[in-house]
Design a protein that fits this description.
The chain has nine helices and eight strands. By secondary structure, it is α/β, with parallel strands linked by helices. The chain has an eight-stranded parallel β-sheet with strand order 1-2-3-4-5-6-7-8. Helix 7 links the parallel strand 7 and strand 8. Helix 4 runs parallel beside helix 5. The protein is globular, with a radius of gyration of 17 Å.
């Protein structure tokens, strides 16, 4: 029994008619629950529709940092309505993305500031509704997005718990998150031969500090690397991380499932 704590079932890479078989394949591979995340207002309703249709599927709603330019400034009332749904278990995927360049007509400074402003508003909404939050950070190099996200998180850490998804390592960065009461989650990047920092972090992270995810349709594990990922593939990531940690697959699944259920209150 394992939970895919972060996937994107509304992605265009998952045709609507494939959703039933996609979820069945996940269940057949021991993935008993899934959390599908919205990235803009336009796909919140679709994610909720899937969550309503399947008892084992839950959702989160938010504006992804790469979508802040296309979002209205007054996004919170609409997002609040979606977030109040009983199958919405957290606010996410939000965060800071300093990897992708600023869109045409925007300076890097203004683009990143808009992302920070949106992240603050997401934290405020999470605190208002008593939900936790799912954070994306990404840099071309260095840790600027993580640094800035942690500064914002520190203001809200007494009211909201954050998970920093798709954690790449090293464990020293995770410790900064843990110090604020946050969590991390690992994708199939931990199975890549070149991902030494990620693999070591997965091996050494304390029990109760991390979850597992596919981030599907992205980041398929070896030997499927480069192909479309799906929730069923979480089993391969779990087997790999269990090996890294010298745990049985049952032990790993048990404690990550407990951590995930507590974070999402499911």
């Amino acid at each position: 029994m394992i939970i895919d704590s972060h996937c994107h079932l509304v992605s265009s890479k998952f045709p609507e008619e494939e959703i039933p078989s996609l979820i069945k394949r996940a269940h057949d591979n021991g993935v008993t629950q899934l959390v599908t995340l919205a990235t803009h207002l336009g796909d919140c309703a679709q994610n909720l529709t899937i969550a309503e249709a399947y008892e084992t599927v839950f959702t989160c709603v938010a504006i992804h940092p790469c979508d802040v330019i296309d979002s209205t400034d007054a996004f919170i009332p609409a997002l609040r309505d979606f977030a109040k749904h009983e199958k919405c278990v957290a606010i996410g995927e939000t965060g800071l993305d300093y990897f992708h360049p600023a869109p045409e007509g925007w300076t890097e400074q203004k683009y990143h500031q808009r992302q920070r402003d949106f992240l603050e508003q997401h934290f405020a909404l999470a605190a208002e509704l008593g939900k936790n939050i799912v954070i994306h950070t990404r840099d071309k190099k260095g840790t600027a997005s993580l640094d800035d996200a942690l500064l914002i998180y520190a203001k809200w850490a007494d009211r909201v718990q954050a998970v920093f998804h798709c954690f790449l390592g090293p464990l020293e960065n995770a410790t900064r998150i843990f110090d604020l009461g946050g969590l991390i989650s690992f994708t199939a990047i931990s199975t890549f031969k070149s991902a030494n920092d990620c693999s070591k972090a997965a091996a050494d992270a304390p029990i109760g500090s991390f979850m597992l995810e596919t981030d599907s349709p992205y980041l398929a594990p070896a030997p499927h690397r480069g192909k479309r990922c799906e929730p069923a593939y979480l089993k391969k990531t779990a087997e790999h991380i269990a090996h890294l940690r010298n745990e049985t697959i049952e032990e790993l699944c048990n404690h990550t499932t407990q951590t995930t259920r507590k974070f999402y209150n499911i």
